[in-house]
Amino acid sequence: MKTAIYKFLGGTAFAGTMLAVCSTPAAAQEARNVILFLGDAGGLSTLSAAGILANDRPQSLFIQSMPNVALSDTSALDRWVTDSAAGMTAIMTGHKTNNAMVSTTPSGPGGRAMPVKTLLEYAEQRGLSTGVVTNMNIWDATPAATFAHVAARADKGEIFRQMLKPRFGDGVDILIGKGRADAVATFAGPGTSAEQAFRTAGYRFGEDTALVGQAPRTAVLRDADFAPLPAVEATVAQLARNPKGYFLMVEWDMHTDDPKAGLRHVVEMDDMIRRISAVAGKDTLILFTADHSFGLRMTGGKRTTPLATQYDPDAKSVISVEPGHTGEEVVVAASGPGADKVRGFMPNTRLFDIMLSAFGWKKDK
């Protein structure tokens, strides 16, 4: 019966005994590495439904076993309900901003967009390795907020340009995501191409995630899905070769406009976090959070029957979805050095402070 539930979700949900996650006291050591797992639209109701569908019991996700937990406000500077651009900007820079703005704030003359430094840029400035992995477009709001600064999230041409001409260091070392066709269109022109542009910037460029193991600077852009766990494991192994440490952001789309796909993605990311928690080392701060929640609710179901056999996406008698972002708090779960600061209710901007502090760094004046 469990196998049927796993096949329903199309994932590899963890069916065995849940591994305990040890929390490292803040006083013991600073983090050498920080990994931020970002469930895009992965609110509490979505996590709960995905775990019960996968394992037929509540609180069965690995995320739900992580030892340090908080609830994070997700509001934008100008709206109670955020989009991914403003939500991720707050997490990566410690600054609230308006919806659609990517790592910029409307603080210039006349509300002009001004760039604000991201945690990834702090890491690049200090010689750490950096990575961004997403199952969405590499230029989309969440990944872009780690390295780019634009007034409008739709400005993908400028986001690609900043990707290859960073303000600090040599830019993101490992890039994995979708949007290959967009890159091809952006860099098309006389005597140039996407492959040439990325190679000139020092990247091994291609569509196969296996390339990550072959070069320290790799850009894997695709227009199709890829196996998440091998890609993330290879990225961690490559980044870990830097003795100074690394920062990695992994985004996985959990929007439930298509409930079956969104809930399957929850299980996929949960598998990633479980595996990486086992191999990343005790000097790694691991965080999971969402940029915003979504209008999914569990509305029924009998405990005596597997939920997957009761669930009909069209009937809405077990799980209902009102498509759209919602404004309630989302969970933050953490383990490793600095995880003890994840507690209580907090603004999403505090996540930046927690990650910066875990590295032992001070915010620029």
From TrEMBL:
Residue sites binding Mg(2+) per the record: D40, D140, T142, E251
Keyword terms, alphabetized: Magnesium, Metal-binding, Phosphoprotein, Signal, Zinc
Active-site residues, record numbering mapped to chain: S84
InterPro entries (alphabetical): Alkaline_phosphatase (IPR001952), Alkaline_phosphatase_core_sf (IPR017850)
GO MF annotations, alphabetized: alkaline phosphatase activity; metal ion binding
SUPFAM superfamilies noted in UniProt: Alkaline phosphatase-like
Residues the entry annotates as binding Zn(2+): D40, H255, D291, H292
Tagged with keyword Chloroplast: no
Keyword Zinc attributed: yes
Cofactor(s) for this UniProt protein: Zn(2+); Mg(2+)
Annotated cofactor note: Binds 2 Zn(2+) ions.
Signal sequence residues: 1-28
Family: Belongs to the alkaline phosphatase family.
Identification of the protein by name: Alkaline phosphatase
